[in-house]
Design brief:
Blueprint lengths: L1 H4 L5 H20 L4 H28 L9 H19 L6 H26 L5 H4 L24 H4 L11 E5 L13 E5 L13 E5 L9 H13 L6 E5 L13 E2 L3 E2 H16 L9 E6 L1 H12 L6 E5 L10 H7 L5 H5 L3 H5 L8 E7 L3 H16 L3 E7 L6 H18 L5
Parallel strand pairs: 3-4, 3-7, 7-8, 8-9, 9-10
Antiparallel strand pairs: 1-2, 2-4, 5-6
Helix pairs in contact: 2-5, 3-4, 4-5, 8-15
Length: 427
């Protein structure tokens, strides 16, 4: 079963899915048609397709559910699904039994196939398991760090000599990080150990803590893919990465704050995760080598934590992040979390926290899809405030990256391009 869940939702799977929906269409519409049935079927397709177009338009433009523009392929899959289901529904009327059976089987198939196509377009769930919210990673084995291990006097790349038996790629898995101080209900964290961490007498390495979007899984696939590429070019050197769960199993937008409503999220990430990392991972101890990062919801959390805990985090990577906690529903969060206290809410916004302060030894990377209009505005505003507050800021727009996997992958790549020299992993 786990092997099935690990199947990647990529081009071949989507092409196969498209073929399935095409076969279903053919069987229901064209097998032994009468003139009356052909007219009925074509009418159903047109009407359902128009209904699909109207639904997507309302969801995207009127309700702005996703807060980003949907690509033409997403529109195609959604409209095709409506058309196919519409055809299947009219097949139950005045038709032979075999057509009813084909139609009944086709409806769930059409919906699943369209869902796979849309998911592949967003590119945020790489496998069947992640598409259904199921982690396919097993527990990763960790070796206790040596507290007496030496810390290199200069950049690690200068002194590190990889052994001949070093693995070509890193390892990924999960670990339960106890919520000892916070009590927050978090799912197991994703862990990535680079090749240099998998040898005898490994060096101490930088720490990279990543938080994904909401909804989403603490999935290490994206960061591991990016870091394996960088490690291959740098003698196996890469940060040890934790993909921490900041939203919990209910996948609430908890604003990454400590609140009675959602629990102590901020304390979980900045105390429980950090304490666990110190005790269980062979990491360098200083803030210069520690990075807090996030995508979308996690991006907002990352910049918020960086400015609230500057003595801990020396680097921050904000990928397509929101401008402030709960930016998708500020009025609702003002009422539900802050009891209508606007001043208390404003005090939690990163731009306001940075006012009048300086962060002279913090490296910040902000990335966003160039066509991700809402988040471009947020990234520009927050990055400008960070630059004014003395951070070393890199701002990068991913060409036509949207708010999907393209933006996430390119954001990670840009982040590591900037951070590798800072972390002592490359020239």
């Amino acid at each position: 079963m786990n092997d099935i869940l690990k199947i990647e939702i990529s081009g071949p799977v989507v092409i196969t899915a498209a073929a399935i929906i095409g076969v279903g269409f053919f069987l229901v519409l064209f097998l032994r048609p009468s003139a009356r049935w052909a007219l009925t079927g074509i009418t159903a397709i047109v009407v359902a397709a128009l209904l699909g177009w109207l639904t997507v338009w309302i969801v995207e433009d009127v309700m702005d559910v996703f807060h980003v523009g949907l690509t033409p392929r997403v529109w195609f899959w959604a409209i095709t699904c409506f058309a196919a289901v519409g055809l299947a529904l009219v097949s139950f009327r005045h038709s032979p039994r075999w057509r009813k059976v084909v139609a009944a089987v086709s409806i769930p198939v059409f919906i699943v196939v369209a869902g796979l196509g849309i998911n592949a377009e967003f590119g945020l769930n790489k496998t069947l398991g992640s598409a259904f919210g199921i982690s396919t990673e097993g527990a990763i084995q960790l070796s206790k760090p040596d507290p007496e291990a030496s810390i290199p006097a200069g950049p690690l790349w200068q002194s590190w000599k990889p052994p001949a038996n070093m693995p070509a790629k890193g390892e990924v898995g999960t670990q339960v990080i106890p919520a000892t101080a916070s009590g927050f209900n978090a799912r197991p964290a994703g862990i990535y150990l680079p090749p240099a961490a998998l040898v005898d007498n490994p060096p101490r390495l930088p720490l990279f803590v990543l938080m994904m979007g909401q909804p989403g899984l603490p999935d290490p696939q994206y960061v591991s893919a990016a870091l394996d590429e960088f490690a291959a070019k740098n003698n196996g050197l890469a940060p040890i990465a934790i993909v921490a769960d900041q939203i919990g199993p209910d996948e609430n937008d908890n604003l990454c704050l400590d609140t009675p409503k959602y629990g102590n999220v901020e304390k979980y990430i900045n105390q429980d995760v950090v304490d666990w990392a110190k005790a269980n991972l062979n990491i360098l101890p200083d803030r210069e080598h520690w990075t807090i990062a996030g995508y979308s919801n996690g991006g907002q959390c990352a910049i918020s934590f960086a400015v609230k805990h500057p003595t801990m985090w020396g680097n921050v990577v904000d990928i397509s992040g929101e401008e402030f906690p709960g930016a998708e529903d500020p009025a609702g969060n003002l009422a539900a979390i802050f009891g209508g206290n606007q001043a208390a809410y404003d005090a939690q916004k990163p731009i306001n926290i940075m006012k009048g302060k300086q962060f002279p030894d913090t490296t910040a990377v902000f990335t966003v899809g160039s066509d991700d209009v809402t988040y471009v505005a947020a990234a520009k505003a927050v990055s400008a405030a960070a630059r004014s507050a003395g951070m070393s800021v890199t701002y990068y727009e991913v060409p036509n990256g949207g708010h999907v996997g393209i933006a996430l992958n390119a954001g990670l790549t840009k982040g590591f391009e900037v951070l590798y020299p800072r972390l002592g992993l490359s020239r």
